[in-house]
Amino acid sequence: MSSTDNTYTTTVKVRRIMGYRDIRRGLIPLLLWPLLVIASLIIGVKVTPFALIVMMLLFLAIIPIAIYLGKLTAPFRGTASFDRKEVMFTVNEGKLYTDGIELDAEWDEADHTVTVDSVYLYKPFRHRPGAVVTRFAGVVEEPSATDFVRFLKENGVEGYK
Questions:
Q1: For residues 117 and 103, is the Cβ–Cβ distance under 8 A?
Q2: For residues 12 and 19, is the Cβ–Cβ distance under 8 A?
Q3: 65 near 30, Cβ under 8 Å?
Q4: What average pLDDT does range 82-98 have in this prediction?
Q5: Cα–Cα distance for residue pair 43/72, rounded to 1 Å
Q6: Strand positions, DSSP E, the chain
Q7: How many Å apart are CA 69 and CA 92, to the nearest integer?
Q8: What is the pLDDT of residues 128-150, one digit of tens each?
Q9: What is the average per-residue pLDDT within 7-23?
Q10: Rounded to 5 degrees, what are φ and ψ at 137?
Q11: CA distance 115 to 104
């Protein structure tokens, strides 16, 4: 709720974003599972006639992996994925930034909130569909929202001039 010339600090509901460490923790079991299934097939068929039983047990091992992945991703889904924290916004040449990330701001008249986010389409190949990447996502709610919109207008942020 504090403001200087081109900086403004306020409490924002910030969305938790899954990082590389979380993704790696989820990929390890997913990559390990098919390797175990293939290895059991190769070894089981040559060594024992009970290969089908071993294969079924390994196939059913996907159930605890799915439960693990559900628990791993739970903090990043739904309303539980938002935390309240103090965020300092800066304006430079008509663009809104936080921590060096350029943000888009959108006023929602119905809820009296301002959504600030940095979302873009990452498309490494022309002929493939891209992936949506979110670097920051947050919501400024009342009573700070109207003051924040005034800050945006005063500093000439694009879309609020």
A1: yes
A2: no
A3: yes
A4: 87
A5: 32
A6: 2-3, 7-15, 82-92, 95-98, 101-108, 113-122, 131-140
A7: 41
A8: 888 888 888 888 888 888 888 88
A9: 82
A10: -150, 130
A11: 8
Indicate the SS3 state at residue 44.
Answer: helix
135: Cα separation from own chain's centroid: 7
What's 57's DSSP letter? H
Q: What is the tens place of the pLDDT at every residue in 19-77?
A: 778 888 888 888 888 887 777 777 776 767 666 777 777 778 788 888 988 888 888 88
- Residue 10: how many CB atoms within 10 A of its CB? 20
Closest CA to 140 of 116, 119, 104: 116
Q: What is the pTM of this model?
A: 0.63
Q: 160 pLDDT band (50/70/90 cuts)?
A: low
Three-state secondary structure of 8-26: EEEEEEEECCCCHHHHHHH
Beta-ladder partners of 106? 115
d(C-alpha 13, C-alpha 18), whole Å:
16
